[in-house]
Amino acid sequence: MALPPPLSGVTVVSLEQAVAAPYATRQLADLGARVIKVERPGGGDFARRYDETVHGQSSYFVWLNRSKESLTLDVKKPAGRAVLEELLADADVLVQNLGPGAAARLGVDAAALAERHPRLIVCTISGYGGDGPWADRKAYDLLVQAETGLVSLTGGPDEPAKAGISVADIAAGAHAYSGVLAALYRRATTGHVSAVDVSLFEALAEWMGSPAYYTRYGGTQPARVGAQHATIAPYGPYTAADGETVLLAIQNEREWDAFCLTVLDDPALAVDPRFATGSARVAHREALNAVVAARFAGLDTATAVALLDRAGVANARLNTVAQFLDHPVLAARGRWRTVGTPGGDVEALLPPADLRDHDPVMDPVPALGEHTDDILRSLGRSDPAIAALRADGVI
């Protein structure tokens, strides 16, 4: 007999938009939770319109919103608030990333909901936290990357750069997801209900741990060195004779010795005082890179990779996104699944955490308001009542 999904029977209501909250709730849906996504009538989640590249739909939205039910509802109107209250009465979790102060104005902040729905776990995702001097400040991914110092670490020596993906949003969504799981476990084992609060700023601040320690106790922040590693060398890209880029990573002295012997064909470099320790190699990075670059300039990619493998040195090729999509590891491990969307089927990657006795739920991405009538009928609304709500602009 097949086991039900891990979160079967858990209902999540989400007042969500953009990336952080949808990423958290999609992961809950992957585990079998019922996720009811509340969207504005007319436009819905504004991430639906970020672009039109996936069968006329937003790449962000398709990525973040599979396996959810879409309910259009104007929660600012009394009739819409009434529907929301009915949903929350039977829900296990509310996730919201409304703008600063909006949840309190609607009466759906954690304190207010604890009085009306004491079993409800409320997860709030904000920009800079629910209190403090920046509680009312708007936050978007790039701005948080800048405020945490990440942008100052990324890019080349002459120009900083943002990370190529929405790391602040993703960090917040990941921590919100784990926080909700912890709160569900605590409620199940003790009966105690905990609210969960996550900010984009503090989630990305956690990811800044290594450079933060390096800066506070080393006296200077790691250098901005492009695709190289700021505090380990050699660790980064080198160009082979055929023009392809090969990346390598030396993690310890054993690997450095093997690299000198097998790849550089110069074992004396292993004990050269400029390169004999990790800190020395970083201090003499320019000279080290000149030695490694000269050697790679005489090796084609296949030979360079074969030598690195023989030496036991981790390496990779610099793939484009298109090459990543065709990666042999993804194909051989069967990581792709077909997911429906309103514009047509798409290929989606399985969630990264494999539960060996559970196939992730990978149901379609919903059209705006696709489940509105069914949800309202389940709450006892008649078809004429639903039509009246639609005529009044509530749904």
Descriptive keywords:
Rossmann fold; six-stranded parallel beta sheet; elongated; formyl-coa transferase, domain 3; alpha/beta; three-stranded antiparallel beta sheet; single chain; 395 residues; 18 helices
Short account of what is shown:
With 395 residues, this protein is of the alpha/beta class. It is 41% helix and 14% strand.
Number of contiguous helices: 18
| Main beta-sheet annotation | 6 strands, parallel
CATH class of the largest domain: Alpha Beta
What is the architecture of the largest domain at the second tier of CATH? 3-Layer(aba) Sandwich
CATH topology type of the largest domain: Rossmann fold
Principal-axes geometry comes out as elongated
Strand order of the largest sheet: 3-2-1-4-5-8
Terminal CA distance: 40 Å
Q: What is the CATH H-level superfamily of the largest domain?
A: Crotonobetainyl-coa:carnitine coa-transferase, domain 1
- Percent helix, as a range, is 40-55%
Average pLDDT confidence is: 95
Number of separate domains? 2
Q: What fraction of the residues are assigned to beta strands by DSSP?
A: 5-15%
How many whole angstroms does the radius of gyration measure? 26 Å
Low-confidence spans = none
Q: Structural class, from helix and strand content?
A: alpha/beta
Secondary structure tally: strands? 13
How would you characterize this protein structure?
The chain is α/β, with parallel strands linked by helices and 395 residues long. It folds into two domains: 11-208 and 333-391, Crotonobetainyl-coa:carnitine coa-transferase, domain 1 (Rossmann fold, 3-Layer(aba) Sandwich), CATH 3.40.50.10540; 235-317, formyl-coa transferase, domain 3. The chain is 41% helix and 14% strand. It contains 18 helices and 13 strands. The chain has a six-stranded parallel β-sheet, sandwiched between helices. Strands 9-10-11 form a three-stranded antiparallel β-sheet, covered by helices on one side. A hairpin with a 5-residue loop joins strand 9 (235-239) and strand 10. Helix 11 (253-263) crosses helix 14 (301-311). The model has no long low-confidence stretch (mean pLDDT 95).
